[in-house]
Amino acid sequence: MKAGLPFTFSWKWLAQLAGFAGLYFAFARFGNVAVVTEGNVSTMWPAAGLAVAGLWWGGYRLAPAIALGAFVFAWQNGVPAQVGAAAALISTLGPMVTVFLMRRYIDAPRLFDRVGDVFLFFLCAAVAPALVDALGVASLYWGGVGKWDDFHGLWLLSWAGDLMGTLITAPALLVWTWPDSQRWTRRKRIEVAGGFALLTICSALIFTGKLASIGVGFPFVVLPIIVWVAVRLGQRATASATLLACAFSVWGTRHGMGPFAQLDLSSPVAELFMGMLAMTGLVLAASITDRKRAEEALRESEARFRLLVENAKGYAIYMLDAEGRIATWSAEAERIKGYRAEEIIGKPFRTFFTPEDAQRGVPEQVLRMAREEGRARYEGWRVRKDGSRFCVEGVITAIRDESGALNGYSKVAHDVTERKQAEEVLRQSEARFRTLAEGLPQLVWTCLPDGRCDYLSPQWVRYTGLPEEEQLGFGWFEQIDPADRERAAAAWKRAVETHMMLDVEYRIRGADGAHRWFKARGVPLRDPEGRVVKWVGTNTDIDDQKRVNELLEAKVRERTAQLQASLSSVEELLYTIAHDLRAPNRHMQSFAQLLLLEHADRLDDTARDYLSRIAAAAARNDELIRDLLEYGRLSHEAVALAPADLRQTVQAVLRAVAGEIQQRRAHVHFGRADWPRVVGNERLLEQILTNFVSNALLYAPPDREPEIAISAESEGGKAVLRVQDNGVGIPPEQIDRVFEPFIRLPNETNAPGTGMGLAIVKKAAERLNGAVGADSTLGKGSCFWLELQAA
Q1: Residues whose CB is less than 8 angstroms from the CB of residue 458 and which lie 6 or more positions away in sequence, other chains included
Q2: Helices 646-656 and 682-698, interaxial angle, to 10°?
Q3: For tag attachment on the chain, is the N or C end more exposed, with fewer CB atoms within 10 Å?
Q4: How far apart are CA 455 and CA 447, in angstroms?
Q5: Secondary structure of 655-670 as H, E, C letters
Q6: What CA dihedral angle connects 69, 70, 71 and 77, to 10 degrees?
């Protein structure tokens, strides 16, 4: 069997690791953490943001690249190898924990689309470095780099640098990988260019010290620009603008320029400025995205509602004001009622009611019920503009504001005129049906859609001798023979649930107490919409026909038994003949071999050749006789069936033929681990599987290493074992013949055999109450399968 590596190894992955490690090293150099031993820590560590973005893009498989880039950076800055390795591990662990928390708590493919997700991102970016940097700084001191007295300060600076790098760099990298919803018109491009030019000029002037005389608060002048970018230009521009402003801030402060460089606590103030700038931009961009999404959702909802109202065929949907006057109108309402919007808006709701209903105060009653109960349902006749009447089913719902004051009503009316007309036609049809049913010889019945009987013909009443009312509903089941009642009830339940025709036979007790066989047939009647509205059926007396069929079936069983007995006699004769032929055949083979051994020197080449042919023919004859004996034994021998483990049986067979597998350099593959158990016989199962595997080895072309796949699975209460090979294959028209006795198909391998192997397999499968077969493609291989009852 073939075995593979537990992981996927590829040059592409190595190239990705090398490229990402180089990119991490470049970002680390930009962070300017040059002399860790002297306690210098970058105000913003952009490599942390790159690491988070990389792990979010490519998964944890890129983690080795982070460790490699961090180690090389530490080594180039003179850090001892042990300390550098610890720093590399910490540099890898921090982003991994951050990404783990992000995937765990931020349920969105785009991280910064919602304000809540932005704050979750901030927490993830803050919590993970806080824990991991503590370990990192401690590892430096444990390695003899630095003093423990500086632990708190160095940890705080390290954590703040990682936090700022993640907050500023990661969003700037990630947002460019997501689709942009901005429509970049020419005006928008000019606006972007102007905004970034203004931001660049302001940042350059502020953070190079040109405007230092104005004071420390002046750097926050860039904040309105960031706010404007977030409001106008979206996430990509916001993250990029934030990165640009922070880059100027870091560069100026590092070179002793700008407002922050002159302060005693330049790093904390600069970090506070950058954190505020980054979070302001992200939160504003997310809130704008949230608002746009809500507006888009509202527009889509309104569009769907308009589409629903305008395309709800047969439904008039409109609004009423608090006094019951028409406030809105729809195209379908116009089609149903005949009024145009300008004709009906402002008119009272009672306009559509018949004069009789209006006189009785029905419109006011409907509105009052909706006002008091929240909703009112109704059904009745209404009047169109042209005076024609139509029937509607409707619901009117009261609409109230947050204070509970009534604002108006929503109205949905469904035109059911056609259904009412269909019901009337059906009523008339039922009257005609009853007239016809009472003239038929069959027992006629009808049922409601749920299966309850609502009509039994006089013929049924006369046959059972019971009043119709006692048998309506499900009372008619009591007249069915108890032995057939459960089967009849199951068939009727299945027909009602599936809306399929009923066809079942059962016995019904007559008025004289005798039970006669009836064939029950029932069909569902459907309305124009396809819904079942009635069941109609008949019970036809087939008792006489049933008795004749039973006599014929008895004759058939008797004749079948006779044929089976004849077949058994033939198989017994075949078994006896095969057994008796073995003795003279063995003698012939033995004497031929004895002559060759003891008198070979007195025989010429021709005689020795004849004796060899006689011995070979006797051996082949003995093999054929053994196969015949096995075939006959399978026909007569008692077979004990018990639960069996297919996988253990296959493994036993493979151990038995291990020498042949090794000799042919065959490769055997197993299917899934959870193989089903079967009801079978261990000896017969091993016999069948040995034949399948031996054939797979025997019929493989000489220039091809055998590939054998063995699998088993459950299919509908059955267990199916399959043995797939890559042999010469079988012509499709010959597949059924290979399981017949003495059939050997010509093939390019010239494999020896008697033609009885698969015939024995088929007989063994029959004794296991199973089935056997094959699927094959000529020149590509075959798949032999065995189907057995699952244990």
Answers
A1: 438
A2: 50
A3: N
A4: 7
A5: HHCHHHHHHCCCEEEE
A6: 110
Task: Please give the full DSSP string across 243-289, using - where no structure is assigned.
Answer: HHHHHHHHHHHHTT-STTTTSTTHHHHHHHHHHHHHHHHHHHHHHHH
The position carrying tokens 């116009």 is 334
Is residue 707 within 8 Å of 666, Cβ to Cβ?
yes
Both structure tokens of 145: 């780099």
Nearest residue to 287 via CA among 220, 230, 229, 228: 230
Over the stretch 321-346, which tens digit does the pLDDT of each residue have? Answer: 988 899 888 888 888 888 998 889 99
pLDDT at 524: 92
Q: Is the pLDDT of residue 169 over 60?
A: yes
Closest CA to 279 of 238, 244, 250: 238
Q: Average model confidence (pLDDT) for the chain?
A: 79
Distance CA 67, CA 87 (A): 9
Residues in the chain: 791
CATH architecture under which domain 430-541 falls: 2-Layer Sandwich (3.30)
Higher pLDDT, 65 or 613: 65
How, if at all, do strands 667-670 and 707-715 pair? parallel
Chain center to CA of 456: 49
Q: Which of 784, 676, 668 is nearest to 722 (CA)?
A: 784
Contact by Cβ (8 Å): 318, 345: no
Q: What is the largest CA-CA distance in the chain?
A: 135
- pLDDT for residue 266 is more than 60: no
| Structural tokens at position 669 | 């593959």
CATH superfamily of 638-789: Histidine kinase-like ATPase, C-terminal domain (3.30.565.10)
Distance between CA 328 and CA 425 in Å, rounded? Answer: 36
Two domains, one topology: 312-415 and 430-541: yes
Which CATH number does 11-177 carry? 1.10.1760
Based on its alpha-carbon atoms, the radius of gyration of the chain, rounded to whole angstroms, reads: 45
DSSP labels, 354-377:
-HHHHHHTHHHHHHHHHHHHSEEE
In sign, the C-alpha dihedral spanning 449, 452, 454, 459 is: positive
Name 444's Cβ contacts closer than 8 Å, sequence gap at least 6: 437, 438, 456, 457, 459, 460, 536, 537, 538
Average pLDDT value for residue range 101-109: 78
Which CATH number is correct for 312-415, 3.30.450.20, 3.10.310.10, 1.10.760.10, 3.30.360.10? 3.30.450.20
Instruction: Please give the structure tokens belonging to residue 646.
Output: 């297919």
Query: Would you call 295 exposed, middle or buried from its count of C-beta atoms within 10 A (0-12, 13-18, 19+)?
Result: exposed
- Other beta carbons less than 10 A from residue 601's beta carbon: 5
Distance CA 459, CA 283 (A): 82
Q: What is the pLDDT of residues 443-466, one digit of tens each?
A: 888 899 998 998 888 889 989 999
Give 449 or 246, the one with higher predicted confidence.
449
Residue 234's pLDDT is 76
- Count the Cβ atoms, other than its own, within 10 Å of residue 159: 24
Give the model's confidence band at 523: pLDDT under 50 very low, under 70 low, under 90 confident, else very high. very high
SS (H, E, C) 530-582: CCEEEEEEEEEECHHHHHHHHHHHHHHHHHHHHHHHHHHHHHHHHHHHHHHHH
- Please tell me the distance from the alpha carbon of residue 667 to that of residue 709, in angstroms, as a whole number: 8
